Amino acid sequence: GQEKLSCNPRKENGSHVVVCELGNPMKAGAQITVDMELSVSGLEDMGDAITFHLQLRSKNSPSPTNASVTVPVEAQAEMELRGNSFPATTVLPMSWHPVEGSRRLEDHGIKVEHVYQLHNKGPSTVSGVTLHLTVPSQLGGRILFYLLELGTEGGMSCTHPPDLNPEQV
């Protein structure tokens, strides 16, 4: 039959140990299968595997039986990209032309601000995330978006595109 084991976690010699009582007394020749579910936190910097050392001790046996189980570690995190444009809708005039050589924003078009937010929905933490964002600056040989500036918040760094504010507006 299936039974739930009574297990007790404790620390021994700087290691975390879980001691489970399997049976006392146990009949000679008995075979037991144990399925264990372990929940371990803080594995982000553990590498790609974690090893569990198992030891079976019996009062009738002079030496314990040792085994090791190596389990691959895979961090999982769900990322979500959100974006908004301000204003939400823009209607461009059909016959508008930029004023050459002008440094005034109004002479280069209608200002549209795009804000993107990258959220980690967990369950693990993430690092070294790269977001490639491509914005079309021209369409049919004409300027579609004039990329004026790029800013970040929250300890991120960005690589500025080569066509960022070429007229120094």
TrEMBL record:
A GO molecular-function term, please? Answer: integrin binding
Q: Does the keyword Chaperone apply?
A: no
Does Lipid biosynthesis appear among the keywords? Answer: no
Q: Which GO terms describe its biological process?
A: angiogenesis; cell adhesion mediated by integrin; cell-cell adhesion; cell-matrix adhesion; integrin-mediated signaling pathway
Q: Which residues form the Integrin alpha third immunoglobulin-like domain?
A: 80-168
Localization terms from the record: Membrane
Tell me which residues make up the Integrin alpha second immunoglobulin-like domain. Answer: 3-73
Write down what this protein is called: ITA2B protein
User: Which organism is this protein's natural source?
Assistant: Halcyon senegalensis
Which gene name does the record give?
Answer: Itga2b_1
